[in-house]
């Protein structure tokens, strides 16, 4: 076997590609990571001391999460809470791990947790769930497309049997057909246990699509036709949902609003109406909220979720209504794509963050951990929305950033 110096020189000369280093070192993953990092250091003139310092299992990460690994990026991790959650799956007090470089975010969510706790806790409800994948087919004509859609409707049980044969964790709920000219989009909606499930649904969809091609004469153009809709702003996801659709609510008492949030229910109500609703409508935004994405991104990074799904998570509506003695405050998240198994969740620090909330791994019954996690995330988003709305109402936002040297 060649020495490190010989392998590095081969890469520098272009005789060996970066992804071929593992083979050159006989599968020694850590040695390959070090050599690849040394190559990048020489090519860029940058010493990657901190990128090269990590505790995660590189071999596992290379199998499932990363290619051409040279190290790891560290993101500061803070904790907010405890937050009292009253859900069907999440019941109790939970600490919220938030990985972020945005100063004041953790402090803000923490203040929202205090307001919720002093108001008796937040209620959370999963009102719908289903991970989606929507292949696009080409028909010979509109009539051919309609006949094919009728075949699919008449044979949904057979298609369900094929889909569910690809994974013991997958359940096909429905197939939603959409027709545009002679383009046929079939939006598969599936339950995926405790996994976020996008890959699981893709595999099942591909298998069913082959059967549909054979029986209908439709031509599969792409297994994802953008009607899923995956990692892009989408009115379809806003309306029909994707992943988990979750609603969280709390009634904030006037005393809590005054003592903890330093404002009034009338001022908070006006911020929600004029900012989150009117302002978002005027901007044609698909997110009628203050900053869902802030909290979702921080939790996703901390717990090994697919960070690109922050796009879907940022969709949603914040509402406020003045009631006797206080303010009813709620958030609706139509497209929260989360899981507690698969993806980045097995990575060591991400596992610890999930364990902190009692949601790591598969649940009993299956799917219960992912649902519990979704309820906790929704309540954390609620806490963040409450705190930012109050800060804007009291005109404290700028002062808070100045005080915390942000």
Description:
The termini are far apart. The mean pLDDT is 96. The protein has helices at residues 4-12, 21-24, 29-44, 58-64, 105-118, 142-154, 156-164, 198-216, 235-240, 254-259, 265-282, 292-303, 310-313, 348-356, 368-393, 397-403, and strands spanning 77-87, 91-99, 122-133, 136-138, 171-180, 183-191, 219-222, 243-253, 287-288, 316-323, 326-336. The chain contains 16 helices and eleven strands. α12 (292-303) packs antiparallel against α15. It has three domains: 4-64, no CATH class; 77-129 and 238-403, 3-hydroxy-3-methylglutaryl-coenzyme A Reductase, Chain A, domain 2, CATH 3.90.770.10; 135-222, Hydroxymethylglutaryl-CoA reductase, class I/II, NAD/NADP-binding domain (Alpha-Beta Plaits), CATH 3.30.70.420. Strands 1, 2, 3, 4, 5, 6, 7, 8, 9, 10 and 11 form an eleven-stranded mixed beta sheet that branches. With 406 residues, the protein is α+β, with helices and mostly antiparallel strands.
CATH topology of the largest domain: 3-hydroxy-3-methylglutaryl-coenzyme A Reductase, Chain A, domain 2
| Assembly classification | single chain
Rounded average pLDDT: 96
What is the SS-derived class? alpha+beta
Shape, principal axes of CA atoms: globular
Task: Supply the CATH class of the largest domain.
Answer: Alpha Beta
Helix content: 40-55%
CATH superfamily of the largest domain: 3-hydroxy-3-methylglutaryl-coenzyme A Reductase, Chain A, domain 2
Which regions contain 5 or more consecutive residues with pLDDT less than 50?
none
Total number of helical segments? 16
The total tally of domains equals 3
**Cα gyration radius (Å):** 24 Å
Largest sheet: 11 strands, mixed
How are helices and strands ordered from N to C?
HHHHEEHEEHHEEHEHEHHEHHEEHHH
CATH architecture of the largest domain: Alpha-Beta Complex
- N- to C-terminal distance: 52 Å
């Amino acid at each position: 076997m060649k020495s490190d110096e010989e392998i590095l020189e081969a890469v520098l000369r272009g005789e060996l590609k970066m992804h071929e280093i593992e083979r050159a070192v006989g599968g020694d993953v850590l040695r390959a990571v070090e050599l690849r990092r040394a190559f990048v250091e020489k090519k860029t003139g940058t010493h990657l001391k901190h990128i090269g310092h990590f505790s995660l299992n590189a071999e596992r990460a290379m199998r499932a999460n990363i290619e051409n690994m040279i190290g790891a990026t560290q993101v500061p991790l803070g904790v907010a809470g405890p937050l009292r959650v009253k859900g069907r799956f999440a019941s109790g007090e939970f600490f919220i791990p938030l990985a972020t470089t945005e100063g004041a975010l953790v402090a803000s969510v923490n203040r929202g947790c205090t307001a919720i706790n002093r108001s008796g806790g937040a209620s959370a409800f999963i009102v719908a769930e289903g991970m989606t994948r929507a292949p696009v087919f080409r028909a010979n004509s509109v009539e051919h497309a309609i006949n094919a859609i009728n075949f699919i409707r008449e044979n949904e049980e057979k298609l369900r049997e094929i889909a569910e044969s690809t994974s013991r964790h997958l359940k096909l709920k429905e197939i939603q057909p959409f027709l545009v000219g002679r383009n046929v989009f079939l939006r598969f909606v599936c339950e995926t246990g405790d996994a976020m499930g996008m890959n699981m649904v893709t595999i099942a969809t591909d298998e069913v699509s082959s059967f549909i091609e054979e029986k209908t004469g439709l031509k599969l153009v792409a297994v994802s036709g953008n009607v899923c809709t995956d990692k892009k702003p989408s009115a379809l996801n806003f309306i029909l949902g994707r992943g988990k659709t979750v609603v969280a609510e709390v009634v904030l008492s006037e005393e809590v609003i005054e003592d903890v949030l330093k404002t009034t229910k009338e001022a908070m109500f006006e911020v929600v109406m004029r900012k989150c609703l009117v302002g978002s409508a005027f901007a044609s935004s698909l997110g009628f909220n203050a900053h869902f994405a802030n909290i979702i991104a921080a939790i996703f990074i901390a717990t090994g979720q697919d960070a690109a799904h922050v796009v879907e998570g940022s969709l949603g509506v914040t509402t406020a209504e003045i009631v006797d003695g206080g303010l009813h405050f709620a958030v609706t998240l139509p497209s929260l794509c989360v899981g507690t198994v698969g993806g980045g969740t097995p990575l060591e620090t991400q596992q610890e963050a999930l364990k902190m909330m009692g949601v790591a791994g598969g649940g009993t019954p299956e799917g219960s951990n992912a649902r519990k996690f979704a309820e906790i995330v929704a309540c954390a988003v609620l806490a963040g929305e409450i705190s930012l709305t109050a800060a804007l109402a009291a005109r404290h936002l700028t002062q808070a950033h100045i005080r915390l040297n942000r």
